[in-house]
């Protein structure tokens, strides 16, 4: 986890429904992008943490939202850092090709929310924020890039800061705790 002077960090969850199993040859281009894109995220300015399944380099084996749904859960120092990685890096190629690999969602598939610096959101917390966004629309508690809210606006929704710990049983951080960027 990257240390930061920011009092709050931006958590991000996105879910994607697979068109085919990950071992299907039609998914090979996506699978081949995982390591380079995840490595780019790990080294990106403002990156703090990402969910990784224990014993692997990514979270594609975790299926808390359904057997055919993969999750991506990350924490960033700022909204701008996440935006820059998402839309101004090699990640953009994966975004451009997403329809080859994932079903189109009819409801929100991405949610952003602020967390105290040092807090690692659990998958359960992330899925609850996504459910809140789907049920109530954007608010300081759960929002999107298009309906962004500041950390100050979200302050009353911040979970209490806890000592750094594993985000979920069977999951680990992509970086050792306390690692610098």
How does this model look, in words?
There is one protein chain. With 181 residues, the chain is of the alpha+beta class. The protein is built from 6 helices and 5 strands, in the order βαββαααβααβ. The protein has a 5-stranded antiparallel β-sheet, with helices on both faces. The termini are close together. Residues 163-172 and 176-181 have low confidence and may be disordered.
Key traits:
alpha+beta, 5 strands, globular, disordered C terminus
Please bin the fraction of helical residues.
25-40%
Radius of gyration computed on alpha carbons: 15 Å
Beta-strand share of residues: 15-25%
Mean pLDDT: 85
Could you give the order of the helices and strands?
Answer: EHEEHHHEHHE
* Strand line-up across the major sheet: 4-1-3-2-5
**Global structural class:** alpha+beta
- Unreliable spans are 163-172, 176-181
Overall morphology: globular
Main sheet characteristics? 5 strands, antiparallel
* Cα end-to-end separation: 8 Å
Tell me the number of helical segments per DSSP (H or I, 4 or more residues long): 6
> How many extended strands?
5
Brief rundown of the structure:
The chain is an alpha+beta fold.
Per-chain topology:
Blueprint: E1 8-17, H1 28-43, E2 47-53, E3 69-76, H2 79-87, H3 91-96, H4 98-101, E4 110-116, H5 123-136, H6 151-154, E5 171-173
Antiparallel strand pairs: 1-3, 1-4, 2-3, 2-5
